[in-house]
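To the team - pyridoxal-5'-phosphate complex, inputs and output below.
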Amino acid sequence: MTEQDGDDRCTYILISWGNNVSSIRLHTAIPGPESQRWMQRRNAAIPRGPYHSVPIFIASGEGALLTDVDGNTFLDFAGGLGCLNVGHCAPAVVEALRDQAGQSTHSCFHVTPNVGYVQLAEALNARTPGKFAKRTLLVNSGAEAVENAVKIARAFTKRQAIICFEDAFHGRTLLAMSLTSKTHPYKIGFGPFAPEVYRIPYAYCYRCSYSKTYPSCGVYCAHELEHVFKRVVEADNVAAVIAEPVLGEGGFVAPPREFFQVLQSVCRRHGILFIADEVQTGYGRTGTLFACEQFGIEPDLLTAGKSIAGGLPLASVTGRAEIMDTPVVGGLGGTFGGNPLACAAALAVLETYDQVDLSARSLRIGTIFEETTSDWSRRFSIVGDIRGLGAMRGIEFVTDRQTRAPAKQQTEAIAHACYERGLIVLTAGTLGNVIRLLVPLVATDEQIREGLSVLEAAISSVVPETVEKAAIG
Ligand code: PLP
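Output:
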């Protein structure tokens, strides 16, 4: 439905997609005039480096909705890049922040410790996979968590090499960037990279680097690690293997369950630590608090971030006590790590997580996604693969199903068509041909269906439905 109404400044447009009650409310073309004005100021004041998926400036947010400076309301399937599993302005988070702001905003953990840090560390030690003694270090970002996990692994094992994966993303600081796979735009012009980083194929079954097929391959890619020790780097020099349980920036690829079990057993055989980077998969995104739970593995070190503090900058490294305690006093930390405001928000996130049962919501969102998209492969020739775990879902687009040639331009056009219709989505994938869902887990069933109907309309607007559907219809 589209209503139009005259207005001096702009055309009033109210759009509803597939539902009687629409969350999306657009009053201007997108981006609106105020957003455009701010974009001009942004371009004059800020380097071009930081990109924008959607060129709108946000005034406020609530749950899964965002309202821009022109008064347009969007359905947000990006969640601030996966940081808002509890939703925008989750009431418990806002209240905790108000309370904490009136008490203490910063004293620095290294000068005088704050109780929130201790409480959050205790909670993460109890709630991360593995019933062994643990410790948690708090830092400011996912990249910093990854850097610290590697530092700790090196200090404990007294080894230097780190094995990471093709299509992995671990952040943008020097070591994290070195562990990240995608070259453009993350690594262009930023070398030399950190040494002793070795990369091997992930279990990306749709694009298997070994041209094998699951399950007949017997997760060859995981067993291949033993050969890597012979051909690439000796096992005795490897401190850790670091992996995302489900590839995030790399395209929302969920590997077969055995992949990590085999990897972890190979690591154990050689005294190599296994680091699970749960910065994007954590906090219920995949249907459990941490995705490792679903793969039946207990990492030696686990990094979390993004949704940990409802949008406040915070990240963590949790691991076996004896490993975490290796660095000397003063060897770990930073000025803002474990800031009282961020810790207060993070504790409120865990409270909300339990109250709303966000794991159940995540699974429910995954089910709605599966039901809604079940015939999209048949209807849209551009759809190559639909996949994911819990609410961590992605669609990979190809121009040719035989060759699986990536449909990068069309994927960007689909994301563009989505935001013009009031749905914020993100692309992903090393080949830039995946649309991913990072919707706040508090989104209602109706909002999920509404967003998916916008996505469907956007796909149709870029690539018409296949003949097959026309014939059926
Ligand atoms: N690790 C993973 C798996 C991520 O997805 C990200 C960010 O997308 C990072 C690390 C880096 O986190 P940050 O951007 O907070 O530094």
